[in-house]
Amino acid sequence: MSTRAGIGITKYDGTVWAIYQHSDGYPKGGIGEALAEFTRREDVERYIFQDNAPADMGDKESFPDQARDYFGAEYAYLFEDGRWLVCEIHISSHSEWRELTEVLKEPELSEP
């Protein structure tokens, strides 16, 4: 099964524009590690807007729910103020926004 994600950027007017990532949407070992390499706004805009038709996802607070409903996303990534944020999306709710760099530093959970 694919791990879907919404990848967005906060525009200057506060709206979030995002694209759909069909697979490998998780932070570690997935798109999260690749996104962490984009640290300049210009590069993120090029990634999102070049060859894509991004969707308006409302604002930062509505983006996780919009990404879940519109893309079927399990993760939402947002580039805002020069940093990446990530939110894990569940069936009926979502986690708080967390800095992607901090999530990538967390140890892997081992299987029981």
Please describe what this structure looks like:
The longest helix has 9 residues, at 41-49. Helix content is 26%, strand content 25%. Strand 4 and strand 5 form a beta hairpin. The mean pLDDT is 92. It contains four helices and six strands; from the N terminus they run ββααβαβββα. The protein is globular, with a radius of gyration of 13 Å.
Outline of this structure?
With 112 residues, the chain is an alpha+beta fold. The protein has helices spanning 31-35, 41-49, 63-71, 100-105, and strands at residues 5-10, 16-21, 55-56, 75-80, 83-88, 98-99. The longest helix is centred in the middle third of the chain and has 9 residues, at 41-49.
The Cα radius of gyration reads 13 Å
If strands are numbered along the chain, what order do they take across the biggest sheet? 3-2-1-4-5-6
Total number of strands: 6
Query: Could you list the spans in which at least 5 consecutive residues all have pLDDT below 50?
Result: none
Q: Which class do the helix and strand fractions yield?
A: alpha+beta
* Biggest pleated sheet: 6 strands, mixed
Taking all residues together, what is the mean pLDDT? Answer: 92
Helix content: 25-40%
